[in-house]
Specification:
- The protein is mainly alpha-helical and about 200 residues long.
- It contains seven helices and two strands; from the N terminus they run ααααββααα.
- It has a two-stranded antiparallel ribbon.
- Helix 1 runs antiparallel to helix 4.
- The longest helix has 27 residues.
- The radius of gyration is 18 Å and the shape is globular.
- The N and C termini lie far apart (about 40 Å).
Length: about 200
Amino acid sequence: MVTHVPSEQYGDERGALLAFAQAQRGAIRRSVLGLTEEQAASRPSASELSLSGLVKHVAETELGWLRLAQQRPNEKERTRETWSESFRLVTDESLPAMLEFWDAVAAETEEFVRSVPSLDDTFPLPEAPWYPKDSKVSMRWLVLHLIEEFARHAGHADIVRESLDGRTAFELIADLETAGRSPEPEPEPETESRAS
């Protein structure tokens, strides 16, 4: 969960892009440090965004772009009817499970980006009113777009977390470094009904 992205090895464009993507992922993950599931799912500001919903959204969005670049079906494809569920945990979903899912997607993204012959290689964008007809984008564009997506939502996550309990990103970084803690949410406290 770095805050400073180290300089890349000279000429390692892939490494530099992937390092910036990882730094922005870390900013979002940091926003859930020390929270219970209930806190992470709460919406303390005027926005409808919650921290667990943001984690789910960016994880599914990254998977969607990865599958487009791989030209493979997206196993988490959303429809108009299920789009709102990409911003909130449903049924038996949990924040730790969503963070684990995102870790797997991030690892697959890195492996894919490092394996393509060239960052200039392209893939087609799907037909949609917001894309020009018959558009293609490069692998470089893919990673830059993911950085943009993560950074936008990292800013949202900072605001939601500060609205929730006043904690800022720098305080969370200091806590993490001091305690040497994992960036996972706190377990829900046991209640009598759960214990029985």
